[in-house]
Structure formats: C-alpha cells, structure tokens
Amino acid sequence: MANRLLLSGNHAVAWGVRLARPDVAPVYPITPQTPILEKITEFHSQGDMDTELLTPESEHSAMSACISASLTGARVFTATSSQGLLLMHELLHFASGARTSIVMFNVNRTPASPWGFWPDQLDSLSQRDTGWIQLYSESPQESLDTVIQAFLIAESAGIPTMISHDAFYVSHAVEPIEVPSQFLVDDYLPRFEPELRLDTELGRSFGAPIDQTSWNRSRRELAAAMAGVDDIVTSAGQRWGEATGRSYGPLEQYRTEDAEVVIVTMGSMCGTAREAVDTLRDQGVRVGLLKVRLFRPLPATALRQALEGVPCALVLDRNYSPGLGGILHQELKGVLWGVADAPRVHGLLAGIGGVNVPSSKIQELVGSYRDAAPSFEPIWVE
Amino acid sequence: MEMTSYPDEGQFCSGHVACAGCVEALALRVILNTVGKDAVAIVSPSCSAVICGANPTSSVKLPVFHTTLESGAASASGVKRALLARGKPDTTVLCLAGDGGTYDIGLQALSSAAERNEDILYVCFDNEGYMNTGGQKSSSTPLNAVTGSTPAGKTTRKKNLIEILAAHRIPYIATCSPSHLNDMAAKVKKAKGIRGTKVIVVLIPCLPGWGVADNGAVATARRAVESGVFPLFEIEDGVTYRLNSETRTQPVERYLSLQKRFRHLSSEDVERIQSNVDEEWQRLRSKVDADGRI
Fold first, then answer.
1. How many contacts (CB atoms, under 8 Å) link A and B?
2. Longest dimension (CA), chain A
3. Which domain does A65 fall in, by range?
4. Does any CB of chain A come closer than 8 Å to the CB of residue B75?
5. N or C: which end of chain B has fewer CB within 10 A?
6. Class (C level, CATH) for B23-290
7. pLDDT 10s digits, B235-250
8. Peptide bond preceding A299: is omega within 30 degrees of 0, i.e. cis?
9. Residue of B63, B75, B81 lying closest to A52 (CB–CB)
10. Is the pTM of this model over 0.90?
C-alpha cells in the first residue's frame, strides 16, 4: 500500500533512496542538500536502512568512495549541490569512464563567487560533458519517483545518473507525497549484480593505463551505451506508471497540440510555465509547454519531432554560460539544425541567480516574443 | 647476514616494468605475497601504478582498481564498505600509494579514512618525491635534497607523516625498509590481522631520483636505517611506540654520500642534518621509553 506523507522535496528524495535499498552511501553536507543526508542518516540510525554509510571529509572523497564501491558491485547513492558537485568534477569524468552505476541527487544552487544559495542550474549543466545521465525534476513527487527509476536506469545502462531539482522551490517545498510500498519498489528494482566487478573470485581490474586505440574504443562504447539511454528512460518511466499510475518519459508535452508558441524549460520553472499555459489557453492563446526531463543524453530525435512545425519556441534558461548564453537554448538550436520547418527560437535568461519568475512574467514573455524575430544574443529577462 | 624468508605464492609476477634494480618491486613482492590472495588492491598514480602494469597485462595477481592521485584512502574505503555490504568482511583492502599521493594531495582523504578508522591496509612507498613524473619535490623530500623543482636543494625539512598519523590514534603504523625484508613481512602480517586503519610507510631509495647506483638501493636503504635517518618502528593506537632497530651504527654522512641529490652539501650542511637526525632520534627514543604512558 502506498503511504501518503507530507514531505519536502529533499525528504521525498530520502524516502526514494530508502526504498531503493542502496548498499553504500557516502554523504557530505551542503546547503540546500543537507536534509537529504540527515533524513538518510535518521533512517539508518532507526534501523530502517541497511546501508554502509560513510561520512568523509569532502564531496571529492564521497564521490571517490562511490566509484570504487560501485565497481565492487554495490548499489550506491550520494547527494550534493553546487560547490560540492563542482569539487567532484574530476571524478564525475572518472565515474562514467569507469562505467559505474552511481545514482547522485544534486540540488541546483548558484555556484560561488559571489556566495549564493539560490536556485540556478549552472552547477549541474556545467557538468554536461562528464558522461553522466542527467534528469531534471519539477516537484517533490517527481523527485521521489525519479530517484527510484534512476537506479534502474544507471544499473541498466552502466552509466552513472544524476537527478537535479531546484534549491528551495523544490528541495524545501512541502507537499503531500505518495510513498510507494517497499514491496512495489522491490518488484520494480531487482538487486544489482554487475557481471564485472572487483572481486577476488573474478580477478578483474579496472582503470589501468591503456593505449590510444583502447581509450578511443572506451568512448565509443560509452557512446553506444548513451544511445540506448533514451529507450531505458522511456521504459523505466512507463513501468513506473504501470506500478504507480505516474508515468514519465524523456520529455513531457503539455498542451502543445496546435500550439503556436511552445515554452521549453527544465526543473521547477515547468510548474510555473504550466500555470502560465493554462491562463493563456483560457485567453485563447495557443501555447504549450515542452518539459525537458532528460538532458543527457539529449533526446534529440524526440525534441526535433516535438518542435517541427511549431512557429515559435521560447527557451527559459535558469542558467547562464558566460560568453554564450543559456545552455538549453544552445542545445536546442543545435538539435534543430537541419529541421526544415523549425521554430523561431528565443533564448531567455529567466531566473538566473534564483530571482523569481512568476506565471505573469512568463505570460508577458509569450506576448512579447511570439511574433518577434529571434536574436542570436541571449536576452536577460528583467 | 639474515636470510629473507616469506611464503612466495607468485602474487607478484616477473615481467613488471619497474626500473632495473628498483626496490619498490622487491617490496611489492614481499607485501603482496604476505597479504595473500584474499585481497583487493587500490592503486593511485605512482610508480606502483606503472609497476602493476598497463592494460591488458598486470604484474599483480589481485583485482586492482586504479584510482585518482588524491583518492587512495577514499577509494579503499569505498571498496571495503562494498565488500562489507556484500558479506565479505575478511577480504583485505590494500591501498598502494606514493609519497605524493600520501603526504601531499592524498593527505586529506587519508586523514578522513583514519578518523573513521576504515578497515584498510594503506602502504606508502616513500621515495621522497614525485619520481614517476621525473623527480620533483614533495613534502616528503628531505632538507637540502636536489630535485627537479628544488635545483638548489630543498630549504625545508621532510614532513613528519608518522606523527600526523599517530595523532589520529589508528591501531597500527609502521615503517619498513627494503633492506629488512623479514621485518617488512612480519609487519604486513601483523597489520593484516588488525581491524581498522593500518598504515605502513616503506622507504624506497629511487635510483634515478636520488642518484643512487643501479645496484645500490638496498645498501642505501640499510644506511638510512642504520644512521637513524629512517628508523624502523611501530606505533600501536597512536601512543605505544616500539623501535625495531635499537642502535645507530652509522653517521648520517655515510648515508648521504651514496646519493647524488646530496653531493652539493657543505660540511656544515651535513652537520646540520646530523644534528636534526640526532634530535629526532632522541624524541623517538623518549616515546619508546614512555611505552604508551605519554
């Protein structure tokens, strides 16, 4: 039986982790991730989680322990945010190159300097080339559901998987959450038993220096595995839907049929955009939302299909790549290259540094840009 | 002369790629055979990583995980915890690192693993510098030694890693020398039987890095022990000290003169080093005499 509990986004994540029964969890505190860590350690101390918990001196060591534990055949979880994720950077490459199946939850927060603790996706988006699967969650319920699916995804693909939700808007927002039963999750998520692992009975070794051709081949193998992730995410989301009634996919299209304007965004901004779409639809404006849930690997084919024939796309980026613009905006322009009937794409820097972007602002942006010519330069939303 | 005796089960294979005459290979042979077959090795970038071999070959008959330079102790912790979770608590987790990966960039992770008293056996092959990258100074490089990054000689003393580790009150710390292989085997065997964090520091005179004759590494290591530059001792629980070689029989000058990295020294320099060694020896003796009552 599912249990209905009033939980914050971070506590919903901790519940998802508890239900997934990880073997090893190295964790290090950082605002605004810490409630995930504290809830897990509370579950552990109460005897509700049979997990080897490590509390090392840094996120760097936490990720180091995640990598080697995963390669020893353990189901592994960690959580971090912002500076912590950035400190892990070297090891994020290492984790995917070593083909681990780590699941990590990241709470999107502004990177210093200057210091800030606000929702902004630059921390995780700047890790886009590290070879991790990246999923973005809009709500506490989706975060719980996705963290369980992420173990299935990471372990099926042999690629580490990162889920992110926005600081405070999701991490600390409290909502009634459906917490599935242990029986349901055990049935959905079988025990992790990788064929290759550090084991005295197998004698396998990992990570020894290799020649150019072999290194090249390792990346082609990673590319082949990445190419299968779209299907794995789709199937994991469908199976979750069959078990719980809540389905997920790489993308979500909301009221996009016949839309003249499609808002494209990720994370908590999707909730606000959904409200703006409803309001505008009531006024007769043909507008929809395209939510990007899977950012890496980028579901290119699905994005092209979703936007082909749409006159105007409005990308809302809660991140800024200095010297270029919004990262989702750039990715989308790349994906749409060569599409005959591609939309005019507007890149809007909305909510950088965590400034609030209310539904009324999004409605206003739709009005301002629906008929405008797109600009190459990013547009800072005031 | 004491004959070396330890069970050689072929855990370290011939055909490895250590420099001819390198005593790190010798130490690895003793350590790996003493640790035995129920073990997993974690190797951070160092001469050990090279000696263990490039894919697809391996000179080590153990599952080996090659980790990042600063992560040795953290990676070893991850393997140990995963083995615990998988119901294999008795498998030895052996971490092999150099002094760069221990005294410098890996010290933070090692300190944390020691503070958590992770059940790992951590071996530092201390050749007193970044010898695998061509011989630059580390914080283990001794006073006055010439390296690629201290061409006029290092102006500060070697970091006292052992005292740092002792302050963590871990169950076992030992120093070993490739000139005393029975002592090395006994210490590894003892460490293997202890639960918690064990650290063994092995002095490795580096032939090219120290400017030692191709057949001179064992003799140099022996002089290091006999002069008191590198005393052989053990520390239990951070407080109980035991010296394994009670007397000093050589002046420091006879150790220094075997190495090109010290050939620029004036007699005053040598005197200063001798005085430092005398001082450290007395400090160590007083801890041994205190026998845990410090």
1. 149
2. 67
3. 3-242
4. yes
5. N
6. alpha beta
7. 999 999 999 987 899 9
8. no
9. B81
10. yes
